[in-house]
Write a structure and sequence with these properties.
By secondary structure, the chain is α/β, with parallel strands linked by helices. Helices cover about 45% and strands about 20% of the residues. It has ten helices and nine strands. Bound molecules: ligand C2E and calcium ion (2 copies). One calcium ion binds next to loops.
Length: about 260
Amino acid sequence: GNHLFSRLRQALAEKRLEARFQPLVWAKTEQVQGFEALVRWHETDLGWVPPDRFIPMAEARGLIVELGRQMADAAFRQLSIWREAGHAVGISVNISKRQLQESGFCEEMQDLARVHRLTVDWITFEVTERQSLLHDPVCRGSLERLGAAGFRLSLDDFGSGHSAFDMVAEIAFRELKIDMGLCRKAASTRSRPIVQAIVDMCGTLELDSVAEGIEDETQARLFSEMGVTLLQGYYFSPPMTGEAAMQYLSSGKSRREPQA
Ligand code: C2E
Ligand code: CA
Ligand code: CA
């Protein structure tokens, strides 16, 4: 409630929110395409507060613009470090409706990319239909500007409750992330054709498709065989610090070593 909200506001003011990075891996080669930045919040008395508990609150109560700004800065900063070390990877950043409604959001992100000496097509912005942002003309305009500026756009959680099939082709998305819940169901013979249809649609529209929440080799193989282009999940790596991600890249392997 109010207590958690004021604690979050304080943590933001003190810039104590952290970013973790989870790899996205090409299904064909298992090479790392890039990392998704995920926010983390720790308090000594509260422990790690899950994003699902504080992101909706930040969105509803006016903190998401500042949270998103700090995350974009952390993500871009980390990407420039990996890039300077010679790793040809990208970064994916989750953005919310309220951020897209800010006038000048695209220009702000372009400036931030410039400050960190990044090319915009190394940067992907992930949006979900949870907040019906594709039906908001201001958000659509903002997404169109980001796409025209050269940022990659990704439609997250596709196939969940709020997916807008009709919007997929209207905005210049470059990637579609299949909802984790739907990916889970792909193991069953009844749901698999639905997932396959989404993957095939991505092929037709020349969008990258991502299967999220891959936890074992069987799932990785299943989605590869279905033609999904990118895989993400604990099987490859949990979200990790920027430094650990650098080691992961340097080690040249994208998959975790079998546990001894
Ligand atoms: P999301 O964008 O769908 O992110 C994927 C979530 O799945 C992450 O949860 C990630 O840690 C988790 N995950 C990754 N691999 C696996 C796996 O193999 N199995 C399972 N069970 N889970 C896996 P997380 O970090 O708790 O984030 C939850 C949600 O919070 C995100 O869902 C996203 O909607 C939101 N979020 C996180 N960071 C940000 C941010 O910086 N800005 C905004 N606006 N939203 C964020
Ligand atoms: Ca995401
Ligand atoms: Ca997702």
